[in-house]
Design goal:
about 210 residues, alpha+beta, four-stranded antiparallel β-sheet, 7 helices, about 15% strand, elongated
């Protein structure tokens, strides 16, 4: 079975293992643990009854939803180098970002930000650089629609690129790079609400990026 990070250079760290992302992982785990306790307590109280059957079904639904949320977060498809600001190591070395395509290949991110464009042949979306030619990096996802999870992924990916450029002191024509670093880092500091509220939860820079999808 292919591992998520197969083919990734050993010195890169997948996003879910960065310090801020791990904080989010712990929050997800605690949140759904609390949600799961409620139906379990209900089953213990009501014993063998129709109410217990209903609570058992609720437990399975919450568990399935929580597991999907966890897996989506753990497999956010990009990675950063140890010198990247997301690693919080205060390094002066050049930062890099690598992106995982749908076929499992890891490619080094270019200098541009990215957006999704529907593939003409396949059911899904290509990852496209926001340059004059809309250069296609590759086939990114087989999802048929751009939902909250995919929007979040794109916001975080472009955030990582903004932070990379700030670290590398690359001029950012959209907005001052240091200001982007300050604003966009709030995307990870926030508590993430339910899926339908994710778009409103993101910071101002992320919202601009989301509207480009």
């Amino acid at each position: 079975m292919t591992k998520f990070d197969d083919g990734l250079p050993s010195h890169f760290v997948v996003f879910s293992q960065t310090p801020k992302a791990q904080e989010r992982s712990r929050t997800l785990f605690l949140r759904f643990s609390v949600f799961l306790v409620v139906p379990v307590l209900g089953i213990l109280v009501f014993g063998s009854s129709i109410v217990s059957a209903f609570l058992g079904g609720m437990f399975l639904l919450i568990f399935a939803f929580g597991l999907q949320q966890w897996q989506d977060w753990q497999q956010t498809p990009f990675a950063v180098s140890p010198s990247h600001p997301m690693m919080e190591l205060d390094s002066d070395k050049e930062a890099e970002v690598m992106i995982r395509l749908h076929d499992g290949r890891w490619l080094k991110a270019g200098s541009e930000r990215y957006r999704l464009i529907e593939d003409d042949l396949l059911s899904g979306y290509n990852l496209v650089a926001m340059d004059d030619d809309y250069t296609i990096l590759g086939y990114f996802t087989d999802k048929k629609t751009i939902g909250a999870t995919l929007r979040r992924t794109m916001a975080l990916l472009n955030q990582s690129l903004a932070l990379r450029d700030a670290q590398n002191e690359v001029e950012d024509e959209i907005e001052d790079a240091r200001q982007r670093e300050s604003l966009d880092y709030g995307l990870l500091d926030r508590e993430w609400p339910e899926e339908m509220e994710l778009e409103d939860a993101a910071g101002p820079i992320a919202k601009k990026l989301m509207r480009q999808e």
